[in-house]
Amino acid sequence: MKNIKNELQNIIIGDGSIGSTSQLKKVQNFLRRNEKTGLRSKEQKHFKSEEKVNLINFAIKEDLFYSAEISEDKFISAGAEQRVYYYDDFHVIKINDSIFYESWFDYFNSLLIHNYFFKSSAYELLGFKVINEILYAVIKQEFIKSTEVADLNVVKQFLSYNLFENNRNHDYVNRSLGILLEDLHDENVLSKDGILYFIDTIFYLTPEFFAESN
Question: How far is the first Cα of the chain from the last one, in angstroms, to the nearest whole number?
Fold first, then answer.
């Protein structure tokens, strides 16, 4: 766990690119610098609004806007946090407005942590898009076609083996890492030929995450 925590801290706090996640990391680095300015100390709603403006300006500067049309003809499904669209025979795209997070910074931390733990369903940032004045991240992910319903008891056993304790409903905590993993119901975890694929994860960092490993 100590090595895992060190690696995760390097991903979240460090400045380097992590392979194919470099676009994600570029944005996360920018948002982390905003955190350091003390913007988070402002009233939360105002902070996220200002963060959005800064992120749009950054995306314009870095040419990170997704210019392709996202056609409703290719719509697959929607949840409280995102909408999913057909991209090609092997991938879907998801647009997310970070509604489940206090900040865009927290959202990008979650994406990076997901890619660390679940490389088989890694996220790739295609860019940003403004739809009806709402800013969305456009994320590409491999399309996983399930062959059976995921057994949530197996999910629980798998996560328990990796020291994620089930603390309520479909939510988990890894106290040694200082990470919360939430909302792992059977639509967010798929099973294909007996193998679990975590396709929609929500990670949160606790203060313990930033403490030195023992």
Answer: 10
Specify whether the backbone of 38 is left (phi greater than 0), alpha (psi in -120 to 50) or beta.
Answer: left
Model pTM?
A: 0.92
In whole angstroms, how far apart are CA 52 and each of 138, 157, 206?
15, 39, 23
CA separation, residue 202 to residues 13, 40, 41, 82, 156 (Å): 19, 20, 23, 12, 16
Closest among 189, 202, 93, 184 to 137, alpha carbons compared: 93
Residue 174 β-bridge partners: 179
* Greatest mean pLDDT among 11-25, 34-48, 168-182: 168-182
List Cβ neighbours of 51 (8 Å cut-off, separation of 6 or more). Answer: 31, 34, 39, 103, 104, 105
Q: Would you say residue 36 has pLDDT above 80?
A: no
Q: Is the pLDDT of residue 138 over 60?
A: yes
User: Rounded to an integer, what distance in angstroms lies between the CA atom of residue 199 and that of residue 189?
Assistant: 6
Residue for token pair 């996560």: 159
Compute the C-alpha angle 202/203/205, nearest 5°: 150
Q: How far is the C-alpha of 209 from the C-alpha of 5, rounded, in Å?
A: 8
